[in-house]
Amino acid sequence: MGGVMGDEMDGRVVIVTGGNRGVGKVIARRFLEEGARVTTCSRGEYDEPPAAEGVEGAEGRVIHVPCDVRNLEQIDDVVGRTLDAFGRLDVLVNNAGGSPVAPTGPTSPRFHASVIAINLVGPLWFSQRANAVMQEQDSGGAIVNISSMASVTASPGLVAYGAAKAGLNHFTRSLAVEWGPKVRVNCIALGTIQTEALDAVIFSNDEKTKMRFERANPLRRIGTPEEIANTCIFLAGGRAAYVNGATIWADGGGSRVS
């Protein structure tokens, strides 16, 4: 009980929200590589899920369902179509989220509400729907939430985002207690992770800026999406069968020095 048991993802069914770009795409691809059947969802539509690119034998094991995680009906559609396609649900990765940097004072209430909805309310709704399925399965299931070091460090311009991620950390702990022993709930708090969006938005494609970030980290480098994906595989699998309600800091130690 208490989540996906066994050392491999063979035949397991996984939903990855925001699973078609950046870290989410790599998470979805790693589950496919491990033998899982995967549903990706995002606000975009794709003829072929990008996560399947280059994965041998992915055909028939991956579907994409358009979804805005702020829309409960669309969440229900993702879960329903996953069950129709694969017959069960073993793992949910709440990866969809993010926020542009914006000054808090002049920013509209609607903007703040939207950021909180994407990063906190949507994952909570998705978790509710997934839990309802997992509780009825003998093997239960596992939920992995993707948080951020912004949940504990001062983040000017990302106040609503950081507060929402702090809420994500908290509901991870609470739901781990409420939904055990059938469903384990854990969290990964990301530091600076190398993606195209990070290059364009934070580094502005400037190597000197990137080097400053690297020097500020205790490991003297930026993390990779593959490292986050591997942590997801660990938390979803049998090797983490006694890990529940935890927030793992995948930040190279950066949150300790910020």
Q: Which terms would index this structure?
A:
258 residues; alpha/beta; seven-stranded parallel β-sheet; 7 helices; 40% helix; globular
Short summary of the structure?
The protein is an alpha/beta fold and 258 residues long.
Radius of gyration: 17 Å
Q: Indicate the CATH architecture.
A: 3-Layer(aba) Sandwich
Distance between the termini: 38 Å
**CATH fold-level name:** Rossmann fold
What is the count of DSSP helices, taking H or I runs of 4+ residues? Answer: 7
Tally of distinct domains: 1
Structure report:
By secondary structure, the chain is α/β, with parallel strands linked by helices. It has a single domain (13-256), classed as NAD(P)-binding Rossmann-like Domain (Rossmann fold), CATH 3.40.50.720. Helices cover 40% and strands 16% of the residues. The chain contains seven helices and seven strands. It has helices spanning 22-33, 72-86, 109-134, 159-179, 196-201, 207-216, 225-236, and strands at residues 13-17, 37-42, 62-66, 91-94, 141-148, 183-190, 247-250. The chain has a seven-stranded parallel sheet, sandwiched between helices. Strand 1, helix 1 (22-33) and strand 2 form a beta-alpha-beta unit.
